[in-house]
Amino acid sequence: MPTQKLKRSYRKTRYILYKETLIDYKEHFWSFLGSFVGIGILAYIQSIHFSGNDAVYLIGSFGASSVLVYGIIQSPFSQPRNLVGGHVVSALVGVTVHKLAPDILWIAAPLAVSLAIIVMQITKTLHPPGGATALIAVIGSEKIKALGYMYVLSPVLAGVLILLVVALIFNNMTSGRTYPSHSTYHKRYHRIRKRLVGK
């Protein structure tokens, strides 16, 4: 009996590894193109409006979001509600915590991330990169800290909306990719698209 279970587990593991390591060139192409354009637009805005190495507009958590919204588009964490809501509520939490405890890093940093997780769970907007967005509000450069609640609007909200628009375009360019993947989002997206295109 234990031998059969081991064999079954071994077969399942092999199958999972096989599926995970399949090379789908089309999928890779669209993931690359979407993330390249999305992050490229943000980097371009950064280069125009901010000088030097102090990246204010191009925050690190956008890279993690790109992995989700361009590479794992079926994930619940990748959906528009999670992408936008997760970043925005986390940014609000991060800025608030920084204002309440600006000089106590060992309290502010873990508190910002932990509270961001809880608020995302409560609002059903769980997006893993949101934790980094909250943390950046606490440990970021002086330029980022000086933004205060403007950090929520720009770079966070503005940057996330750029990533979302690019995701809606590039993730729906072929029949094999559908974003958002949730049926309610998908129907709403196609309804709006029909109105705009007139088809």
UniProtKB/TrEMBL annotation:
Membrane-traversing stretches: 29-49, 55-73, 104-123, 149-170
Pfam families: TM_HPP
Species lineage: Bacteria, Pseudomonadati, Bacteroidota, Flavobacteriia, Flavobacteriales
Entry-linked PANTHER family: TRANSMEMBRANE PROTEIN DDB_G0269096-RELATED
Domain of life: Bacteria
Protein name (Swiss-Prot/TrEMBL): HPP family protein
Species of origin: Flavobacterium circumlabens
InterPro entries reported in the protein's UniProt record: HPP, TM_HPP
Keyword annotations: Membrane, Transmembrane, Transmembrane helix
Keyword hit for Transmembrane: yes
Domain HPP transmembrane region: 23-180
